[in-house]
Amino acid sequence: MRRLLRLGLVVAVLVAVYLGFTFVQVYQAARGDEAQPAEAIVVLGAAQYNGEPSPVLQARLDHAADLFDQGLAPVVAVTGGRRPGDSATEASASAGYLIRAGVPESSLRLESGGENSWQSLAATARFLRQEDIENVILVSSPYHALRTERIAEEVGLHGHASPTPNSPESGVAQLVKMGRETVAVGLGRVIGFRRLVNLDDRVGQVRSDVGSG
Length: 213
Fold this sequence. Notes:
By secondary structure, this protein is α/β, with parallel strands linked by helices. Helices cover 56% and strands 12% of the residues.
């Protein structure tokens, strides 16, 4: 019994150290900016309301438009599908916003089927490869920066995170999301980010079954 307790304590300490190290990485990525000349800018989707980007998505799009105006990449790929009850996809709402901001329609690429970051980036990687594009700038909220880089690597993109500098997510809310990202990145690096998505789906299904029962 004592051996088991000692083993459990050692495991708990190792997990805590690993997650603590991962949190530092998530925090540092959130505060960094790796924007540099690339072949495309990829904007991770967020909520939209009847075709209008939410404040979170708008902040990401404004940053992407600024990077495009700086001439860092000639293509902007916007991502995100349609949530239940939505009249538009996140990608189409993003595209409309960027066109109004002055980004030419010919420079836009839309990925409108993804339901999460992994699906969106995997689908985006497939159609960007058809144009021989793999070096990209990844635009999302600060807390999301490290995970987007790791997922991009897993799906075959060479990604440089450039978090939006004016995200409306801040304070305690952002720290909570960083905590969630720490767990997601920590698990994803161990089991793979695709498996992490599948695991999250199964957990969600179990919760749904329990709730309906």
